[in-house]
Design brief:
alpha+beta; Double Stranded RNA Binding Domain; 4-stranded antiparallel β-sheet; about 40% helix
Length: about 140
């Protein structure tokens, strides 16, 4: 299982919140209401950023353990470890909504029969695409 640890820069605000950025992950930013929330948000932001880069077939930056002076002055620096494999599995297995269009008469009959549209469509797609059945199905 792959783990990546990036240094996160937490910039404190006067209201107690923290802005977050990762020098090794340009464009990866977030904010947290306090330091604990900011650390949670940093992990989520870095995980999502790396996942998006993987989906776009971009090269994942190698974490560095050095920061420029402007990143450190007045800021809190913390390592943030992410688990791209686990995050990818979570995202790839999320349930998402999709709209379908069927005739009204068919919908009425299906609802009378208490058809689970999601389960039926998922099973039909797996069969149609000739994919291996997943565990428990």
């Amino acid at each position: 299982m792959q783990n990546l640890t990036y240094l996160a820069v937490f910039e404190p605000s006067t209201d107690g919140s923290y802005s977050i950025y990762f020098p090794d992950l340009p464009g990866c930013v977030s904010v947290g209401n306090d330091l604990e929330d900011a650390l949670r948000m940093a992990s989520e932001a870095a995980s999502l950023h790396v996942y998006s880069m993987e989906c776009d077939n971009e090269e994942i930056p190698v974490p560095s353990m050095r920061l420029a002076r402007e990143d450190t002055e007045g800021n809190v620096i913390m390592p943030v470890t992410i688990h791209p494999d686990l995050f990818r599995m979570k995202k790839d297995n999320e349930r998402i909504k999709t709209n379908i269009t069927i005739p009204a008469w068919l919908k009425r009959i299906a609802e009378e029969q208490k058809v689970n549209y999601s389960r039926l469509l998922e099973t039909a797609l797996i069969d149609y695409l000739q994919l291996p059945k997943q565990g428990g199905r």
